[in-house]
Amino acid sequence: EVQLVESGGGLVQPGGSLRLSCAASGLSFSSSEMTWVRQAPGKGLEWISYISGSGTIVYYADSVKGRFTISRDNAENSLYLQMNSLRAEDTAVYYCATWHWLLYFDSWGQGALVTVSS
Amino acid sequence: EIVLTQSPGTLSLSPGERATLSCRASQSVASSHLVWYQQKPGQAPRLLLYGASSRATDIPNRFSGSGSGTDFTLTISRLEPEDFAVYYCQQYGRPSWTFGQGTKVEIK
């Protein structure tokens, strides 16, 4: 069974930084395309970043481009999201999710809450 | 970027009734790139349908999907108590993935 466990969420001031981690198990991690999807309180889902299995291809939503960096450590079966220059509108639950070759978000973590507030 | 617009925003129905949810795209989406998810409070989304109409593992056959081009539909033939939730459509168009804003199916 695939398990994805996010960590690293918390309260941060505007302009601050935070690094989220996603520990993966039960899958061939180095072959898995990974993504981050977020959900602001009471709002809908927003895809924010993608990384290929090798880590050589990355994509970002315009809303986070230049501020967030996705990365992975295949030896540690871990996915990361470095978030800089955080804004109030970045407040959300952040999910890591696998991207299936049949073109859907497959397995999801339980989510990590990031709150940006002074 | 393709924008997905879901309607209605909220659907108030009783158990046993039929639910019809719409997802309209701002430009044509390949059927293979259109997905539906269900989300309950405090939970991560759950895959329902992929390729516009293929049910995911363990999804009951009361859930069905149809459509092509810019108009897609999720139908729940007879609502069960556990079906009251928020439903999202999502499209894939590398390098961008977008979701609709969601339709809440609530108990009338």
Helix/strand-derived class of chain A? Answer: mainly beta
Uncertain segments of chain B: none
Largest sheet of chain A: 7 strands, mixed
For this structure, the quaternary state is heterodimer
The rounded Rg of chain A comes to 13 Å
Distance between the termini of chain B: 35 Å
How do the SSEs of chain A run, as a string of H and E? EEEEEEEEEEE
Q: Biggest interface: chains and residue counts? A: A-B, 21 and 24 residues
User: Kindly state the mean pLDDT of chain B as a whole number?
Assistant: 96
Please, how many helices of chain A? 0
**Helix-residue proportion of chain B:** under 10%
The DSSP helix count of chain B reads 0
Average pLDDT level of chain A? 96
Order of helices and strands of chain B: EEEEEEEEEE
**General form of chain A:** globular
Cα-to-Cα separation, first versus last residue of chain A? 40 Å
Strand content of chain B: over 45%
| Helix share bin of chain A | under 10%
